[in-house]
Predict the 3D structure of the following.
Amino acid sequence: MNNLLDELLKPIWHAFTALDLDKSGKVSKSQLKVLSHNLCTVMRIPHDPVALEEHFKHDDQGPVSTQGYMPYLNKFILDKVQDNFDRQDFNRMCWTLCARKNLNRTHLLISDEDAFKIWCIFNFLSEEKYPLAIVTEEIEYFLRKLTEAMGGSWVEERFEDYKLELSIKQQSLSAWELITLVGRGTFSKGMDRQTLSMGITEVFHELILDVFKQGYMMKKGHKRKNWTERWFLLRPDSISYYVSEDLAEKKGDILLDGNCCVESLPDKEGKKCLFYVKCSDKSYEINASDKKRKQEWIQAIQMCLSLLQLGRTVPHRESLQKRRDLRQKQQAEQEELELRMRELQTANENKQHQLEAMRKKLEEAATNAAEEERIRLQTQTEQQDRYRMDLEREKMVRQEMEEQVAQKSSELEQYLQRVHELEDMYHRLEDALEDEKRARQDEETVRRLQARLLEEEAVKRAELEQIHLHQQRAISETEVEKQELRKEGTAKENALQAAMLQLEQLEKERQGALEQYQEVVQKLEDAANNTRTWKHKVAHHEGLVRLVQPGSKGPQKITNWGPAAFTEAELSLRKKDWQERKSQPAENQ
């Protein structure tokens, strides 16, 4: 509400000053009655015709000043204002009162309607101080907006020259000076009147009517589902659409809130560049002229929805307030700086008086200073001699330190070389240990192979013994069966010979496995010797490394049940005994 009252006071101030014909700062009560009646009419406030007389009944000194009119204005009009009236009607009423007196139409390239729009923009951008004026920064902001709306390029040098000229005369412009500046085409050279008028209208829509975007698009009807071209106006809380851009006939509004959304649609029904606005009650399908305009409209609507969700005002009003706050801050800093400058100037004058007094004291102390200077020079000479001797001693100490540093550097290099050698030996020792590990794995593999061969040999020997027992039992049976047994014996003898051949083959395989095992054992011993050699080298080099050495290995004993059961000699005796027992039944037959 405070912002609304601030916006209303500016047009009222224009109207009040327009009634001050002799520029005395006062207006007659009859004119104030007319002004008050018009204000109440356009702002839809009940008007009390006798309130003004009652308010000023004790003041019979004639016309009323703005300071005298403000209490009545606040009490009987502004305090009763509700945001339910057309602000443009209010602005036009105040414009009508002040334009007849102040607007100079000579050499203007714009219409009265465009001048009214510039006047409204002035009230929006002007400072909240009276008499109203627009500062240089806001003039540049408005002219930049106008140039962009006309499709031109901003010439910084031209405005800098104008700003320099403006700073020589004054730092701001009144509403009528701003209208003259724009209306005479100072910053719109090369543009025709229509382009200038369209640019003023676009800036007016954006800053005063809060229109973010406007333009022609196709809208799909809800009942007949036909597509009709409409002129759309996007405001912070609504999208209005009209029959044409003159805004004479409004066809409807799309009310926006935080629950609305806008999304793109795929091409359909022969229409491209489609999007829709989804609200809580219904959705609206819209067709833009091209992809660029479609994207611009979607982004603009999304920005409005984001502002509604965050509860923020329109961006240009926020930026205006920020610029005003910044100017106020800079003005406060400038005033503080001026105050400090005055304080510094006063302090400087005091310092000048103090320096004058000190100069006199210095002149009196000049003689004493000369004597002190002589003593100081003498003392300085003595100190220089002493410092020279100290410097020579420091040079000698430094040379000794440099020699020590060089010696330490040499020792460090030797130590680092020994460290590198030790690291190399450690790497070689790790390689040797890895070879030993692989040799042990090979040994284990061969050992498992021998065990498997011995198991197979034991199985075959058991089969041969069973065959031999069957032969012995067959011989002790009757003569009738002897012939059959001889045949079976012949067959079994053949089987026995085949088994003997297999046994010999297994013996050969076992001998081959034994040779492989001996080779692995030899490799293992070589690896162990290599490991012991490197261990001795490392222990000799550092004297710190003590590694566990592998123990010596005796002759390996292997049987069909695994290692460490019989020696090779015992196996040979067993084999010989078995062959003798096998030959005895054959002799008996």
